[in-house]
Design goal:
With 210 residues, the chain is of the alpha/beta class. The protein is built from 4 helices and 13 strands. The chain is globular.
Length: 210
């Protein structure tokens, strides 16, 4: 059995979505300053780093992160690697097998290109709305992508998020799949339990099946 950590490291250098609260980690208490313990003050948005979106992120009255059934976040998952330049289209998905798949992670060029520095990349691979609709038809309940959004940067209507979240299909965003080969795994990606949370950071891992 092998464990793969597919979360990104939270640090002051981690890029965040433009306009979101910045990530700040600092020492509130410090042994080196003579305090009795080390205690950190951490300030971050609910969609920082590796995180889950709740339906309430975009859907008025939608489920919040503390209301989503926990079985969504653990179980069998398929990792597909897609060699696409800009976005994942429905034709890319139709070439894949979907029988019995409830959770899927998409490994793209994002994993190697977008996490290599401290700059926010705007040209990341994302989902098209038609691809999101296709995944709903296939009754997938968790969709992972290897950068900070399933949506194209610059979108103002957010059709992919609205499409997925209105059907309670949960996006898992901000993954790093660079060390993971395509195939089947067990995933565990429980969110922090935030009351009325529109999203939450997670520590996402994959476990090999053999």
């Amino acid at each position: 059995m092998k464990i793969y950590d597919i979360s990104v490291l939270l640090s002051n250098e981690l890029p965040t979505w433009p306009g979101d609260p910045p990530l700040r980690i600092e020492k509130a208490l410090d042994l080196d300053r003579g305090d009795p313990a080390n205690v950190s003050l951490i300030t971050l948005g609910s969609h920082t780093g590796t995180h889950l979106d709740a339906p309430g992120h975009f859907i008025r009255g939608g489920k919040t992160i503390d209301q989503i059934p926990l079985d969504v976040f653990i179980g069998r998952v398929r990792v597909y690697e897609l060699n696409v330049e800009k976005r994942i289209e429905v034709d890319d998905l139709k070439r894949l097998s979907w029988q019995g798949i409830e959770r899927v992670l998409f490994k793209t060029r994002n994993s190697l290109e977008c996490w290599k520095d401290e700059v926010f990349h705007t040209d990341f691979v994302h989902l098209s709305q038609k691809a999101a609709e296709y995944l709903i038809e296939k009754e997938v309940k968790l969709i992972g992508i290897d950068y900070l959004s399933v949506e194209a940067f610059g979108s103002t209507e957010f059709p992919v998020h609205h499409t997925l979240l209105s059907h309670e299909v949960i996006p898992l965003e901000g993954l790093n799949l660079s060390e993971v080969e395509p195939g089947d795994y067990e995933i565990c990606c429980f969110p922090i339990k935030i009351k009325n949370g529109d999203g939450a950071p997670v520590r996402a891992i994959l476990k090999s099946l053999s």
